[in-house]
Amino acid sequence: VFRGRILSRRLVGRETRYEVEVKASYGQRFPLVSREYLWVPDVCGCPPLQEGGDYLLMARRHVNYEGTLNRILLPTDGYARPWTPREHRLVRDAQRRC
After folding, report:
1. Secondary structure class of 21 (helix, strand, coil)
2. What domains, with CATH codes, occur in the chain?
3. Integer Cα distance of 68 and 52 in angstroms
4. Minimal CA–CA distance to 58: which of 40, 34, 33?
5. pLDDT digits (tens, 9 = 90+) for 37-92
Protein backbone atom coordinates (compact mmCIF):
# COMPACT_ATOMS: atom_id res chain seq x y z
CA VAL A 1 0.00 0.00 0.00
CA PHE A 2 1.36 3.40 -0.93
CA ARG A 3 0.33 6.97 -1.69
CA GLY A 4 1.29 8.16 -5.14
CA ARG A 5 0.76 11.04 -7.54
CA ILE A 6 0.03 10.05 -11.13
CA LEU A 7 2.53 11.83 -13.40
CA SER A 8 1.65 10.29 -16.76
CA ARG A 9 -0.33 7.54 -18.45
CA ARG A 10 0.70 5.53 -21.50
CA LEU A 11 -0.87 2.59 -23.30
CA VAL A 12 1.67 -0.16 -23.98
CA GLY A 13 0.22 -3.03 -25.97
CA ARG A 14 -2.76 -4.35 -24.00
CA GLU A 15 -1.68 -2.72 -20.75
CA THR A 16 -1.66 0.74 -19.22
CA ARG A 17 1.52 2.09 -17.65
CA TYR A 18 1.37 4.93 -15.15
CA GLU A 19 4.41 6.84 -14.01
CA VAL A 20 3.89 7.46 -10.31
CA GLU A 21 5.68 9.68 -7.81
CA VAL A 22 5.70 7.71 -4.54
CA LYS A 23 4.71 10.09 -1.72
CA ALA A 24 4.45 7.64 1.19
CA SER A 25 4.76 3.92 1.75
CA TYR A 26 2.71 1.97 4.29
CA GLY A 27 4.45 -1.25 5.33
CA GLN A 28 5.77 -2.40 1.96
CA ARG A 29 7.03 -5.95 1.54
CA PHE A 30 9.28 -4.76 -1.26
CA PRO A 31 11.19 -1.46 -1.56
CA LEU A 32 9.85 1.42 -3.63
CA VAL A 33 11.87 4.27 -5.09
CA SER A 34 10.64 7.85 -5.48
CA ARG A 35 9.32 7.20 -9.01
CA GLU A 36 7.86 3.91 -10.14
CA TYR A 37 5.91 2.53 -13.05
CA LEU A 38 2.54 1.09 -12.09
CA TRP A 39 1.06 -1.39 -14.57
CA VAL A 40 -2.63 -2.14 -15.08
CA PRO A 41 -3.33 -5.24 -17.23
CA ASP A 42 -6.01 -3.50 -19.31
CA VAL A 43 -6.49 -0.43 -21.51
CA CYS A 44 -10.08 0.37 -20.46
CA GLY A 45 -9.05 2.95 -17.86
CA CYS A 46 -10.07 0.83 -14.88
CA PRO A 47 -9.42 1.84 -12.18
CA PRO A 48 -9.79 5.47 -13.29
CA LEU A 49 -6.57 7.28 -12.35
CA GLN A 50 -6.21 10.90 -13.41
CA GLU A 51 -2.88 12.56 -14.16
CA GLY A 52 -1.94 14.91 -11.34
CA GLY A 53 -4.16 13.09 -8.84
CA ASP A 54 -2.99 11.66 -5.50
CA TYR A 55 -4.18 8.14 -4.76
CA LEU A 56 -3.94 5.48 -2.10
CA LEU A 57 -2.96 2.36 -4.06
CA MET A 58 -2.85 -1.29 -3.05
CA ALA A 59 -0.66 -2.99 -5.62
CA ARG A 60 1.38 -6.16 -5.73
CA ARG A 61 4.76 -7.10 -7.06
CA HIS A 62 4.68 -9.19 -10.22
CA VAL A 63 7.68 -11.33 -11.18
CA ASN A 64 7.38 -13.66 -14.16
CA TYR A 65 8.37 -17.32 -13.87
CA GLU A 66 11.72 -16.67 -15.55
CA GLY A 67 12.56 -13.93 -13.05
CA THR A 68 13.30 -11.45 -15.83
CA LEU A 69 10.29 -9.18 -15.29
CA ASN A 70 9.80 -7.39 -11.98
CA ARG A 71 7.10 -4.74 -11.79
CA ILE A 72 4.31 -3.25 -9.71
CA LEU A 73 0.89 -4.46 -10.82
CA LEU A 74 -2.50 -2.98 -9.96
CA PRO A 75 -5.33 -5.36 -10.95
CA THR A 76 -8.27 -3.75 -12.77
CA ASP A 77 -10.41 -4.40 -9.70
CA GLY A 78 -7.60 -3.37 -7.33
CA TYR A 79 -7.81 -0.82 -4.54
CA ALA A 80 -7.21 2.70 -5.83
CA ARG A 81 -8.88 5.55 -3.97
CA PRO A 82 -8.28 9.30 -4.10
CA TRP A 83 -5.97 10.20 -1.24
CA THR A 84 -7.50 12.12 1.65
CA PRO A 85 -6.33 12.79 5.20
CA ARG A 86 -9.05 10.33 6.34
CA GLU A 87 -7.56 7.56 4.15
CA HIS A 88 -4.15 8.35 5.66
CA ARG A 89 -5.51 7.96 9.21
CA LEU A 90 -7.25 4.68 8.38
CA VAL A 91 -4.12 3.17 6.83
CA ARG A 92 -1.89 4.35 9.69
CA ASP A 93 -4.30 2.85 12.25
CA ALA A 94 -4.44 -0.45 10.36
CA GLN A 95 -0.65 -0.50 10.04
CA ARG A 96 -0.27 -0.25 13.83
CA ARG A 97 -2.63 -3.20 14.38
CA CYS A 98 -1.18 -5.49 11.69
Report:
1. strand
2. 2-96 (2.40.50.120)
3. 31
4. 40
5. 999 998 887 888 999 999 999 888 887 777 677 888 998 778 899 998 888 788 77
